[in-house]
Protein 1
Amino acid sequence: MSMNSNKAVREVLGKGAINELLLKLNYNRKNPTWKLVAYENTNKSGCCLESSLKFRNFSRTWDFLNSVAGVAHKAHHHPTIVTTYNQVSITTTTHDADNQVTMLDILLAEAINHEFDLLKEKQT
């Protein structure tokens, strides 16, 4: 399924469906792992998927960020990314679905996992 190919990927997922998809997304992974986070104590309502990643150094961090930028641009779905020297925090939500999690977010998280795995393979 293309990330942005049809309306179905932008339909809001229920909490049960999200949790089931997160089990598959995180299965047998140490890093990255994703969790469902509700916006609390902010002006936003809704929820997002969130993951934190750690890298060996600044160069590897930017290699990863560049690869995620390419995937996000191609999908027309752009996560919020906060980074420091060797750490990256990524959140994804579907803004045009009232800041809720959709299949588009799950697919982007899968693509981010893939990019992380590719970078990890290059490191060895």
Protein 2
Amino acid sequence: MKKIIYYWAIYGIIELLTYILLFRWIGFWPLLLFQIASTAFGIFIIKRLWRAITQNMREGKIISPYLLDTVCFILAGILLVIPGIITSLCGLLLFLPFIRSWMKPRINRWLEQRMNQGNFTYFDMR
């Protein structure tokens, strides 16, 4: 538990320093506009793709490369919504195909482990 607190503290300090440097470099209004635009884009991505992923899961489709792309895009949207320059840049990086191809096997392994252990919870919202 202490490691998580340390990681969050280090992340917060790095994010704060990034904000200060960018504030001095590009100014307040462009920085604010970037945050608003990244949050709006993240919300748009999440809303649009969440429907697709829940429909595929409801239909019982297996984890396919298309579905893993959707999971990567949802993760990118979540990272874009979280306030911060570093999380926004990580979210934008997930739109690059070679980053997604690196992430997909790891996400697939994680999902398979969760399903095999019985730790996977599915809520039917009908």
Protein 3
Amino acid sequence: MDSGRKNLGDKMGDKFTPDSSKSTLDKTKDSLTGAGDKVARDVVPDSQKSTGQSTMDKMSRQKDANKNESILDKAKGALGMDKH
């Protein structure tokens, strides 16, 4: 695992645990760590990441590109501010 990044197990646990089962603190933590992970994903070159992290980041960037959102929309989504 790359320093400061969530490992795959933690990411999967966050995704598969229903929001209704999470406390407000857990939801906030997930949003903040997710936003931090996206920043690290885009700032650190893939050549400086482990193979697994690089692969996961490439898939994540592709998923975000398919959403066709602006950077501001992505930031709002990562922080949970896009939900009404």
